[in-house]
Amino acid sequence: MLRCLLRGGCGPLFWVWVLLLPLASLHRLNQHGRREHNVKDRPKLLLVSFDGFRWDYIYRVPAPNFLKLIEEGVKVEHVENAYITKTLPNHYSLVTGLYAESHGIVANEMYDPVLNRSFSMETDSIYDSRWWEQAVPLWVTIQKAGGRSGAAMWPGSDVRIHGMYPNKYLQYNASVSFESRVEQIIKWFSAPEEEAVDFGVLYWEEPDESGHKLGPQSTQMDKVIYGIDEKLGFLINELKKARLYEKVNLIVTSDHGMAQLSPDKIIELDQYVSRDLYTWVDKSPVVGILPKDAKLEEVYDKLVDANQNMLVYKKENIPQHFHYQHNIRIMPIIIEAREGWTIVQNRSSPFMCAYSNLLHVCVCVCVSVCVCVLLSLPTIAFISS
Ligand SMILES: *[C@@H]1O[C@H](CO)[C@@H](O)[C@H](O)[C@H]1NC(C)=O
Ligand SMILES: *[C@@H]1O[C@H](CO)[C@@H](O)[C@H](O)[C@H]1NC(C)=O
Ligand SMILES: *[C@@H]1O[C@H](CO)[C@@H](O)[C@H](O)[C@H]1NC(C)=O
Description:
Protein name: Ectonucleotide pyrophosphatase/phosphodiesterase 5
Distance between the termini: 23 Å
Number of helices: 11
Radius of gyration: 21 Å
CATH topology of the domain at 44-98 and 135-257 and 365-373: Alkaline Phosphatase, subunit A
Strand content: 15-25%
CATH class of the domain at 44-98 and 135-257 and 365-373: Alpha Beta
Pfam families: Phosphodiest (PF01663)
CATH superfamily of the domain at 44-98 and 135-257 and 365-373: Alkaline Phosphatase, subunit A
Keywords: Membrane, Signal, Transmembrane, Transmembrane helix
Bound molecules: 2-acetamido-2-deoxy-beta-D-glucopyranose
Oligomer: single chain
CATH architecture of the domain at 44-98 and 135-257 and 365-373: 3-Layer(aba) Sandwich
Structural class: alpha/beta
Signal peptide: 1-26
Strand order of the largest sheet: 2-17-8-1-7-5-6
Number of strands: 17
Helix content: 25-40%
Transmembrane segments: 358-383
């Protein structure tokens, strides 16, 4: 963990764990019967994620609330997201301290050959505990140590994991406004001493959603980013109003960055390999491919040199530094699009909706992959108080 300090690049994980260390040690004291004494002084932590918040967004529009928070706190200079840079794997990394290969949420769309089940972030399969139980999220760890936690829509936080939910949580519902999520969190932190939470997680879908629709380089994104800054301002103001701002450590971060795509940069797998030979498990920019029985070599051979804008790996050859290999849910073949490129089966595949009218300027985007250093390190994290 300390290695990142030396290299000058600590992930948000690092900061979450740094802030939680004192929390853990207090709880150790608690077990020796000093709980009463400590409840009031327990350090508190609120972890906030704005999905898909690229590191440079705060520099392209006025972002007074972000800048003020940075000034009062600490800004991490360099963040490396966990591979693959998608929403579920990275949000679970943030609350488990583990790479995806170790926590088991290896993608947004998965297949587990032992369970013989598929998982998709778009379906109720996310409520099947077995997907999440290769690791223990912080809210469970904290509760087992005698603390209390509250979760407002953080991925996985409304799923029963190792027999537990957060003490307080909201059922996932994308229509619930950021402001009501904040109000809930504030309520939980400011409850009477024995009821109050020590650790809170708060998730917001933007600017990811707009980024995917508009493209991170679109000028229309400016308004969205400015809106996020206002939301941060709202959060800080509510914390102050509830007299929590001085008491609660705050980490603001994100799960991944975003790279601009182009309708001229599309790779159609159908041109290279028949769909009959494999199942498409997870989508671009890192595609999970499950070859049909005994078709691994054939599928790999057809793809490996097919297109210079994609990198094709057999599972055992995925570069070590990605820490993305040792899990049965990682597919036998993964294909990584080079930055700016999109992999689809053909141009009418569902993911292509944003390109349906090619006369429009490019309006589709996706997360960037880790290998693309400049755009993918992005993510911000800072700590106040
Ligand atoms: C896996 O599940 C599918 C149905 O979803 C079923 O058709 C198939 O037989 C199962 N495979 C095994 C090996 O159990
Ligand atoms: C989701 O939230 C919206 C807005 O608060 C509400 O109108 C809707 O009923 C909720 N949906 C469910 C399924 O609870
Ligand atoms: C493209 O894929 C869709 C399904 O995603 C299929 O219905 C359609 O026939 C395919 N088109 C071509 C030209 O292969």
